[in-house]
Amino acid sequence: MIAPGRRRFGPEIPGTQPPYDWPAYVSTIKRHPTREPLALAHTLSELTGPMFADGWAGVDQVDLTRLRPGAPEAIGQRIIVTGRVVDEDGRPLRNTLVEIWQANAAGRYYHRDDQHDAPLDPNFTGGGHVLTDDEGRWRFLTIRPGAYPWRNTYNAWRAAHIHFSVFGPAFASRLITQMYFQGDPLLETDPVYHAIPEVSARERLISTYDADLSEAEFALGYRWDIVMRGRSETPMEGR
Amino acid sequence: MPIPTGSQTIGPFFRVGVDRPAWSDLTREGASGTAIRIEGTVFDGDGAPVPDAMLELWQADANGHYADLDDNRPLPADAHFRGFGRVCTDDAGQYAFRTVLPGTAPEPDGTTQAPHANLTIFARGLLKRLATRIYFADQPSANAHDPLLRSIADERVRGTLIAQPVASADGLAVYRFDIVLQGKGETAFLAV
Questions:
Q1: How far apart are CA A230 and CA A139, in angstroms?
Q2: Average pLDDT over residues A163-175
Q3: Candidates 3.80.30.20, 3.60.9.10, 2.60.40.3080, 2.60.130.10; correct CATH number of A60-232?
Q4: What is the pTM of this model?
Q5: What is the pLDDT of residue A4?
Q6: Where in the sequence numbering do the catalytic residues of A fall?
Q7: B13 touches chain A (CB under 8 A)
Q8: What count of CB pairs under 8 Å joins A to B?
Q9: CA B12 to centroid of chain Cα atoms
């Protein structure tokens, strides 16, 4: 347990986060606020956050390739995606909830409003979640998501990605982001990816192929670490 | 030192990953206190409803305690209240949480805030989360002394943080809190 006030959430580091107003991503045009967010001295409201260590979010779902054990397998390239959730001091964040969702191998989401003319896979819905372990690690077995077209501009295609939702230790650290794949040529033009100004910050969203994570005759391995906002002066215990 | 991972939009197709209909009811585990409903609509800059937003609530229990080990103030804690809720807007951009009226207690530094719930908004078209607070119009005395509310000079801006009681058909106390992402009546968002 950490005494309140000993965890710190500094201001956003310039260049490392996207703006709200980013017209290259057309959906921002009518949805970005026009006033700067109001400054706020952090209180317990911002410095605390939901705890999931007791399994409140339900049993981990880490195998997206089957809807349940023994069910038929989804079609596509099996991949293992794994990494750690750490804070700005590199300390692992344990028992934090990581949720993911993604398109299937054909680039189609299991969603009523996804009208892309690509096949749904009856054995794949594309959602999963897990609590990080004592080292902040998480791991999913899934199918490599396909790229898909969107109507942002003519003939636009989203780079292949997996959505990640992560909580971290506090209301102030809440994050939703996307993980991309090394070598994807669509990254050159993807306006969502390019909304992060600094190249080095942007490139941290790209997972790397790791032969040591691959499993022989089975699946390719990708590594991606997530850094949550916040520092603490004492190790996190009991979360 | 590592820098925090950059945010990206939740996109339009998030339901399979994050939709937890049960989580819209924060009282479902038997919370103590005054049960309330907070409901409203999310609007864009054209006044059109936003049907692809996800909202998350984080609030203290009826005693003013947050269900987090880091809130180690000497307060009674409601073991049946997690303080966290989530809801996805419907096709009309509407949402509703069932929860309890949050209590309030002095911060470690001695200041006291008015009862409030903390709200995060994710949506297609938002590259990073928006954060705001929900205060309650029928707490005028507490609101008048709240440090955040007092820091907002413009009454119209301040008013966007205050949920208004509305009539309800089912006997539950209901508060309306609309969220305007842009333009006339734009909600006051907070740099958390």
A1: 23
A2: 97
A3: 2.60.130.10
A4: 0.96
A5: 45
A6: 109, 148, 158, 161, 163
A7: yes
A8: 239
A9: 21
